[in-house]
Amino acid sequence: MTHDPSLPARTVFLGSGDFAVPILDALVGWPGVRLVGVVTTPARPAGRDGALRPTPVALRAAELELPVLTPDRLRDPAAQAAIAALAPDLAVLADYGRIVPQTLLDLPPHGALNLHPSLLPRHRGATPVPAAIAAGDAETGVSLMRMDAGIDTGPIVAQVRVTLAGDERAPDLEARLARIAGELLIASLPGWLDG
């Protein structure tokens, strides 16, 4: 499917953690998409007081005045109907933390793209940044992939490699990879949307 560049692609962003925030910011700043909704996990108890705390993505989306959905489960028909009602052309996922059912992956005509902080297929799963450090990898990076039913198994669209010095700490490396992921997404989207 080709994309009419005169119309921004209606885009739904799915993300929860800190890694996803710079990617959300990159999407907001790019005129080729119009964010029609942000899907994030519900607020969870945190800290000594056990107060409910929204995800970093929920907090950033609120600052940006974007509509936010916080379904408990994406398999819930009501959650799927709410996302379908947004009529997305594209879905972008980063650090969401939940399995996305195939019905939602198939919903947008331009598919669902995932940004993952590793050089897939190495370090699939939820902790790729600490895994790369613990393994003593000489390099890591960011992968942009088209999502499929597996976990981090879809076809790779683009990758950026990052050389490691061997003294990295996970929070700093994750923040660096998040900035790179936002840049990779924006560099890749024009070609992706044009087919």
Provide the low-confidence segments as ranges: none
Number of strands: 9
| Residues in β-strands, percent | 15-25%
Residue share in helix: 25-40%
How confident is the prediction overall: mean pLDDT? 91
Structural class: alpha/beta
Q: Which sheet architecture does the biggest sheet show?
A: 7 strands, mixed
**Helix segment count?**
6
First-to-last CA distance: 6 Å
**Radius of gyration over alpha carbons?**
16 Å
- Strand arrangement within the widest β-sheet reads 5-2-1-6-7-8-9
Shape: globular
Order of helices and strands: EHEEEHEHEHEHEEH
Overview features:
195 residues; globular; alpha/beta; seven-stranded mixed sheet
Summarize the helices and strands and which ones pair or pack.
Layout: E1 9-15, H1 20-28, E2 33-39, E3 44-46, E4 51-53, H2 56-63, E5 68-69, H3 77-84, E6 90-94, H4 102-105, E7 112-116, H5 128-134, E8 139-146, E9 156-163, H6 170-193
Parallel strand pairs: 1-2, 1-6, 2-5, 6-7
Antiparallel strand pairs: 3-4, 7-8, 8-9
Helix pairs in contact: 1-6
Kindly summarize this structure in a few lines.
This protein has 195 residues and is an alpha/beta fold. Helix content is 31%, strand content 25%.
Structural notes for this entry:
This protein is of the alpha/beta class and 195 residues long. It is 31% helix and 25% strand. The protein has helices at residues 20-28, 56-63, 77-84, 102-105, 128-134, 170-193, and strands spanning 9-15, 33-39, 44-46, 51-53, 68-69, 90-94, 112-116, 139-146, 156-163. Strand 1, helix 1 (20-28) and strand 2 (33-39) form a beta-alpha-beta unit. Helix 1 (20-28) packs parallel to helix 6. The chain is globular and about 45 Å long. The mean pLDDT is 91.
